[in-house]
């Protein structure tokens, strides 16, 4: 493997296959309209800077309400198409840019999803990806709000590149990345809302962040594709109906959105706490370069992986 490692370290020559990508990170308030306006401003600024594929952080329109289980937060959900997708479709058409927008979707009365809308460069809504893996951890009570996705893992052939979209907790599962890459995705986008429990940060914070980044870098290597992970920033205290914080410490989102190359190297990383547009020119020729020099897709033993559909071990 030594010789192949050295080959993958050599960057492929620049080509006409480059596409400029931008991901954004921002802090969110309880004001949905203000959050939407801020997100639109960041995306427009990125598009004016030449970006042709844009991606938001997870659930940009509100604070991360999953810190508690309260029925009133269902009112934050919106339909697709709806006010956010209408605004993003207009922006996409204006700048001939692809947009991935992470939304709290109201699919029907009593049926809600954590969803990414994919909008092509002509302003058309190509469709949605609904988050497949739903966590349930302290202050991340997503199972209360979100029905697991039923779209399956998808790749989207947009005007500027073939992309895959997964959402936050999905990023810990190599199966999702693989199945998306197998459908042709050259870039994987992971809209994210992840942070520290402040009381645990000193003991676990460094390892938690490095694990989060490392697992996604491994998806880039294993699938020979780019990975882009926009995360939110800010220390959020969601208020309960009594006007008091639902959690004493709240959540401190760690930002550090990043763009990773097919060889697993982080080429661009944002700050911990600043609102930021992270933009980069991605040479899609490097996908082919990576996949032919490290031919993991060629050497997969598809005849031997049946056990992956079991929960554990030899169970039927």
TrEMBL record:
Name the keywords, alphabetized: Hydrolase
Pfam short name (any one): CN_hydrolase
- Supply the source organism for this entry: Eiseniibacteriota bacterium
Q: Which GO terms describe its biological process?
A: putrescine biosynthetic process from arginine
All copies of domain CN hydrolase, residue ranges? 19-284
Q: Which PANTHER family match?
A: BETA-UREIDOPROPIONASE (PTHR43674:SF2), NITRILASE C965.09-RELATED (PTHR43674)
The protein's matches in SUPFAM superfamilies, at most eight in alphabetical order, are given as:
Carbon-nitrogen hydrolase
Gene3D superfamilies referenced in this protein's UniProt entry, alphabetically: Carbon-nitrogen hydrolase
Superkingdom of the organism of origin: Bacteria
What's the protein here called? Carbon-nitrogen hydrolase
Q: Which GO terms describe its molecular function?
A: N-carbamoylputrescine amidase activity
């Amino acid at each position: 493997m030594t010789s192949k490692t050295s080959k993958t370290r050599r960057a492929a020559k620049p080509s006409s296959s480059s596409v400029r990508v931008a991901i954004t990170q921002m802090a969110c308030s309880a004001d949905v309209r203000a959050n939407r306006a801020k997100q639109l401003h960041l995306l427009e600024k990125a598009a004016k800077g030449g970006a042709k594929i844009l991606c938001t952080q997870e659930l940009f329109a509100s604070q991360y309400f999953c810190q508690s289980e309260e029925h009133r937060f269902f009112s934050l959900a919106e339909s697709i198409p709806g006010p956010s997708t209408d605004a993003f479709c207009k922006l996409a058409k204006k700048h001939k840019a692809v947009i991935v927008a992470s939304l709290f979707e109201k699919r029907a009365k009593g049926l809600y999803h954590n969803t990414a809308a994919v909008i092509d460069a002509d302003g058309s809504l190509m469709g949605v990806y609904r988050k497949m893996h739903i966590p349930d951890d302290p202050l991340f009570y997503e199972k209360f709000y979100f029905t697991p996705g039923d779209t399956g893992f998808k790749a989207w052939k947009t005007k500027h590149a073939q992309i895959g979209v997964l959402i936050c907790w999905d990023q810990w599962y190599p199966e999702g990345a693989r199945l998306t890459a197998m459908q042709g995705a050259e870039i994987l986008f992971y809209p994210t809302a992840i942070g520290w429990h402040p009381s645990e940060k000193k003991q676990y914070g460094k390892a938690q962040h490095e694990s989060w980044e490392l697992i996604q870098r491994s998806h880039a290597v294993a699938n020979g594709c780019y990975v882009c992970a926009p995360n939110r920033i800010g220390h959020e205290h969601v208020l309960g109906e009594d006007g008091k914080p639902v959690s004493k410490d709240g959540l401190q989102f760690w930002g550090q959105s990043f763009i990773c190359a097919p060889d697993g190297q982080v080429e661009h990383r944002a700050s911990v706490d600043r609102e930021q547009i992270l933009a980069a020119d991605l040479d899609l020729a490097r996908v082919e370069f990576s996949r032919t020099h490290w031919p993991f897709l060629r050497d997969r033993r598809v005849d031997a992986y049946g056990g992956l559909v079991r929960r554990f071990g030899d169970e039927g």
